[in-house]
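In practice, a research group might receive sequence data for several interacting partners and want a quick structural hypothesis before committing to experiments. The following worked case mirrors that situation: the sequences arrive first, and a predicted assembly follows.
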Amino acid sequence: MKKLENLSYDELLEEFKTLLKKNALKFTTQREVILKTLYENQNHFTPENLYLLVKQNYPDLNIGITTVYRTLNLLEENNIASSISFGQAGKKFELSNRPHHDHLICEKCGDIVEFHNDEIEQLQEKIANIHNFKLTDHLMQLYGICQKCQED
Amino acid sequence: MKKLENLSYDELLEEFKTLLKKNALKFTTQREVILKTLYENQNHFTPENLYLLVKQNYPDLNIGITTVYRTLNLLEENNIASSISFGQAGKKFELSNRPHHDHLICEKCGDIVEFHNDEIEQLQEKIANIHNFKLTDHLMQLYGICQKCQED
DNA sequence: CTGTGTGCAAACATTTTGCAAGCAG
DNA sequence: CTGCTTGCAAAATGTTTGCACACAG
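A structural hypothesis for the assembly, expressed as tokens:
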């Protein structure tokens, strides 16, 4: 699997075009706009949110939410985007070009600190191997009280 | 928050009854049967799966899936059960009386393997310390493809 | 030109809500 | 008795599919 971390928009776009060509799929305005919107707003989007933002930013392009779903699934299947599940609240998607990180979350003030720890990631691989899983992703969130809130 | 790890069924039931009494809620056959079925099948259930199993095990009790949803939410709100999200595939629930563990989840078939790794938990503590957080909890889910699905 | 992509509406799947009847306390 | 609880049906929510027209290659 190709590593997409830290790609610029143009590089990401090339990646997307290559993938489309390889599968005899077509490069359309809708697909381009969705990728661009995801890139320009380094955020986690629900399909609905993304749909509304695209509609707002490109009012002349009469995009349908169906296309947003189809494109997000296409991007995810090809590892250009990834999603996190939220129960019946649905999924949130983000591009795969950001460096990997996990979250340390303060339960009192909601502050989020990003961190990365290779040692843990290696142990996670090891655990997956033991169970014969091919690891594709992980979610690690540590909950606690930050220093500031401990002092209050 | 009360610690429910390793409680027997009777203790769990007492916990549940106390909770119901405290909130002027009623102890019904349906609620008892749902708790019991969760306990006797130390498994992760979707509401649908649990509903079908209860129907099968108690054919005389004409239970509705609505009640299963309502009871699972009640149990979760009161920390007697907890759930994991699966995008549009919904949630899976398990009782909270079991020793701490994390989850390895197959993205294709939804199968869940439990694991526990002290080394990782110690590293998590260390990370929290570096950022001056007092750790209270964590969520760690590894996503991958299980051996069976890799073969397909 | 050919066949993929699109938007729309309808279908689906999962979960929640409104309601009248049932039953625990 | 009182009012919480239940099952049913309908609604709500989120996502996918069928179709005829549009358009990229």
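Before designing any experiment, note the following. Chain A has six helices and five strands. Residues 24, 26-28, 46-48, 65-66, 69-70, 88-91 of chain A lie near DNA strand D (CB under 10 Å from a C1').
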